[in-house]
Amino acid sequence: MAALVQGAGRAGLMPRRHPTGDFFVCDILDALPKDDMATMEHPVFSLATRPDLRVLDYSHNGVEITVTPSVRGLATIHDKDILIFCISQLMAALNAGRRVSRSLTLKAHDLLVATNRETSGDAYRRLREAFERLAGTRITTNLALDGVEVTRGFGLIEAWEIVRKSRGGRMISVTVTLSDWLFRAVLSSAVLTLSRDYFRLRKPLERRIYELARKHCGRQESWRVSVETLLKKSGSSSPRRVFRAMLREMIAADHLPDYALAEEPGDIIRVTNRAALIEAQDAGQGPVLPPLAGETFDAARTLAPGWDIYALEADWRGYWAASGRLRLRSPDRAFLGYVRARLGAKG
Question: In angstroms, rounded to a whole number, what is the distance separating the alpha carbons of residues 66 and 192?
Answer without folding.
Answer: 24
